[in-house]
Design goal:
The protein is built from two helices and four strands; from the N terminus they run βαβαββ. The chain is an alpha+beta fold. It has one domain: 2-Layer Sandwich (Ribosomal Protein S8, Chain: A, domain 1), CATH 3.30.1370. It has a four-stranded mixed β-sheet with strand order 1-2-4-3, covered by helices on one side. α1 crosses α2. The protein is globular. The two termini are about 20 Å apart.
Length: about 70
């Protein structure tokens, strides 16, 4: 079972807390998937949090654009 956080419909100012809580709450359930959608700003905000927490992740490209997979925390 893959744990997912879908950020569709979430406001930018809510992203930091939501992503951080999701990572901490599910840190033993890796890999984790974060769906950002097509918003480059949303993706930037998520990556800022992941970098701050020193997570290792795969940034989706092509048909997986807007999907970030956290593989290590």
């Amino acid at each position: 079972m893959t744990f997912k956080l879908d950020l569709h419909g979430i406001r930018h100012h809510e992203v930091n807390v939501m992503v951080e809580d999701f990572i901490y709450d599910n840190q033993y359930n890796l890999p984790l998937v974060i769906i950002c959608g097509n918003s480059s700003r949303m993706k930037e905000l998520v990556l800022e949090v992941l970098n701050k927490l020193e997570c290792e992740y795969i940034d989706g490209k092509g048909s997986d654009y807007g999907r970030i997979t956290v593989i290590k925390f």
